Predict the 3D structure of the following.
Amino acid sequence: MPGSDVSKWRVLSRLYPYLKNHRGRLGAGFVAIIFSNSFQMMGPWIMGQAVDSLYATVTRRQLLNYAGILVGLTLLEGVCRFASRWWFIGASRDMEYSLRSDVFGHLEALPTAFYQRNKTGELMSRATNDLSNVRMLLGPGIMYSLNTIVTAVVAVGFMLSIDWRLTLVSLLPMPVVSIAVRKVAIAAAASAIATVVLPSSGSGEVTTMTLPLGCGSSRDNLPSIVLTASAKSE
């Protein structure tokens, strides 16, 4: 629903100050992604030039030059790709540290009544697993999204420079592939592993159970599963 989407973006906007503090490294990582994908796409173009040269008079020295260029492009791509991961993942680790410090400081300032109303296991899950997922969003999530966008733009640009008609034909199956990938992702989410925190006693101790949900199951059935497991544990 539109309202829920707006609320989600409003919640994500709270992460902007953490991103702003590391905008230098994130910008450098984005530049490294552009260069790494450019070097990667230049490899097939150089290979095509080498193959086309076989129809004309070609010497061993020319072939060695093409081979040297391909090796150099591969090395440059590897360096830039390593640099992008170094900057993005390093920044996400620092942002995670800041987030954990802020969350811990906020928890320390809360009154005792708050801990009496909320379960210890849920608070621990928010302070550990949820913050780890936020780090994955701020680091690898942004990095892989930008990498996909840059790869698509650079690849289509190279393809259009070679033959625009063949490029259009090759892009025709993309809508079908996108729909198929989305359906597979939904099926994979339905069979995801759910971690359920169950109380083992009234003293606030918790027991963690891992319940795999089959393809025929859904998260709507999770409460009944939890209640059954909780009753057996008692």
